[in-house]
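To close the chapter, one final illustration. This time we ask the reader to focus less on the individual chains and more on the assembly as a whole: which components sit near each other, and how the overall shape emerges from the parts.
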Amino acid sequence: MDMEERGHSEHPEALRLWLRMLTCTQLVEKQLRTQLREQFDTTLPRFDLMAQLERNPDGLKMNELSRRMMVTGGNVTGITDQLVAENLVERMDVAGDRRAYRVRLTARGRKAFDEMARQHEAWIVTAFEALSPREVESLHKLLGKVKQHHNANLKMETA
Amino acid sequence: MDMEERGHSEHPEALRLWLRMLTCTQLVEKQLRTQLREQFDTTLPRFDLMAQLERNPDGLKMNELSRRMMVTGGNVTGITDQLVAENLVERMDVAGDRRAYRVRLTARGRKAFDEMARQHEAWIVTAFEALSPREVESLHKLLGKVKQHHNANLKMETA
DNA sequence: TATTGTTATACTCTATAACTATA
DNA sequence: TATAGTTATAGAGTATAACAATA
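The assembled structure is written out below.
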């Protein structure tokens, strides 16, 4: 039927779960990309970067953006360049460190983002409307365990 | 902290859930890509294609692969070409339709895939080991609702 | 020396559309 | 005309590594 056919034939439960999770994420993500492109002529990474800045009105340094978006620095430079060219974000000097910038939304960027975010939220609500509030909470909690476990493992490797 | 900072400031529950789900998927997927590349010099789409064939020993037509992998036909051609060049899959003629092929694993491909699938399975089991069997089942079921709802919506649009 | 950020580059993945050949 | 598959192209998305400026 779809991606869930992937994997080894023994198909333990964790594998089945992963394939289904991947399918769901891809379904939603594909829809988001299409709609962001069609309705706002933008992309998911651009939306992500602006979303990070919306939550940090004082701006974020490039390396902070890089870490939060989980991509390498060079990519953040590229996306930021685009958004600066469209006057949606701006690079501010950081007092005391002439190497660094603080990137933040412009007034125009904030306005543009608010509009996109409203739509984005509606798309997401629709995508999960089959679940009751309790189920949404339950799913969120279970995924929290997965995430926490992953981060714990990362720390062990780094240490 | 990470991607979950994305989104509108009101952050209804569905949005929080989506951001967490996206984070989890990306964490696992990034790890899979890295390990597939380092240990087997391959990629996720190549692995996906072979996994589809492993579950269909008689092979699949190009358009069937395209649908199951959720990508367009041209891409399947490209990935198949690579795998054919490495003698991991082969294109068989379809009796009665000279336009179509049936793609299937070669003996070498099956052997290579089995090895990868074993590792892949172990990675996935590790990724979800924070969850009890009951929790895995619960997560699987909840995501099933999301998937089903999405497919139901698709059908309505098509009809 | 280490860090911040940029540049340059290359590759994977993807969609679109035009194309060939069969049906 | 419609379908199976390919080709060509363009763009998104990403990682790597070399680099400049500053700490």
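DSSP finds six helices and two strands in chain A. Chain A touches chain B through 67 residues (CB under 8 Å). With these observations in hand, you are ready for the problems at the end of the chapter.
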